[in-house]
Amino acid sequence: MSDENLVVLKKILEEMSIAHSLLGMHDVDSFMEDEMAKRAVCMTVINVGE
Rounded to an integer, what distance in angstroms lies between the CA atom of residue 42 and that of residue 26? Predict the structure, then answer.
């Protein structure tokens, strides 16, 4: 695997870790009521997509 691919995979894992941390603070109901958390997780998913 190339160094570039490893950098990309590392970044994906970092973003997934951030999303996991954000989600871990909520149950489903509290997450759905927390607009800031929803937007933060969405931005993290967008970062993975880029």
Answer: 15
Estimate to the nearest angstrom the gap between the alpha carbon of 21 and the chain centroid.
Answer: 8
Q: Where are the domains of the chain?
A: 3-49
At which residue do the structure tokens 């929803």 appear? 38
Instruction: Identify each DSSP E strand in the chain by its residue range.
Output: none
Rg over CA atoms, the chain:
13
DSSP 3-state assignment of 2? coil
pTM for the model: 0.74
pLDDT at residue 9, rounded to an integer:
95
What percent of the chain has a predicted confidence (pLDDT) above 70? 100
